[in-house]
Amino acid sequence: MALTTTVGGASSDSYATLADYTARATALGWTLAGTDAANEINLRKATVYLDANYVWVGIRVASTQALDWPRISNVLVDGYVIDSDTIPQAVKDAQMELAYLIQGGLNPFATVTNGAVGRKRSKAGPVETETEYATTRETPRIVAIEGLLAPYGRRLASAAAMVRG
Q1: Pairing mode of beta strands 80-81, 112-123
Q2: pLDDT exceeds 60 at position 164
Q3: Over the range 58-83, which residues count as b (16 or more CB within 10 Å of their CB) and which as e?
Q4: In degrees to the nearest 10, what's the CA dihedral of 56, 145, 111, 2?
Q5: What mean pLDDT comes out for the span 13-30?
Q6: Would you state the pLDDT for residue 126?
Q7: How do residues 59-116 score in pLDDT, each as one tens digit?
């Protein structure tokens, strides 16, 4: 099923087109999945991840749009207003980067357990050792994606869970 990339569309399921993804892959020397269908699935998964895990600046242009972008915002990026009728290239680049990582085996929806030691106890006689782990569960951080998207929003798992603009 072909991607729907209409800006602000009610049934859009991707920010970047398959042609955008193929061009970026060529420019960066990536080898994409063997079929268009597989590449489209990865682009859709990347879109779902971005919209589910980021709080973006501004507000949606329309209540009927399927995806979080385009947005109306008074936030300046590099001194320029974000156009309310386009998807920022950095958002598309982040989606394509993530799609490629997904193709390589990354599961951005996986839950990662952080096994930091919360408490450790030792006893000399009769010998006893106890280690308690303070586990937290979170989704994996993808630093390259976070860097591309920093001017446009914050990852939900970050300390700043709300961005106004």
Answers
A1: unpaired
A2: no
A3: bebeeeebebbbbbbbebeeeeeebe
A4: 80
A5: 98
A6: 76
A7: 999 999 999 999 999 999 999 999 999 999 999 999 999 999 999 999 988 876 655 6
Half-sphere exposure of 58 (CA within 13 A, CB side): 19
Round to whole Å and give the CA distance between 24 and 14: 15
Percent of the chain scoring above 90 in pLDDT? 68
- Per the DSSP assignment, residues forming a β-bridge with 59 are 72
Torsions phi, psi for 39 (to 5 deg): -65, -40
The reported pLDDT for the residue numbered 116 is 60
Matching residue, tokens 């998207």: 149
Task: Say which residue the tokens 């980067």 belong to.
Answer: 97
**Contact between 95 and 50 (Cβ < 8 Å):** yes
Write out the two tokens for 54: 């980021």
Map out the domains of the chain as residue ranges: 1-106+142-165, 111-140
Which amino acid, 89?
Q
Q: Specify whether the CB–CB gap between 128 and 122 falls below 8 A.
A: yes
Q: Which of these, 138, 163, 141, lies nearest to 153 by C-alpha position?
A: 163
20 contact partners, CB below 8 Å, separation of at least 6: 92, 96
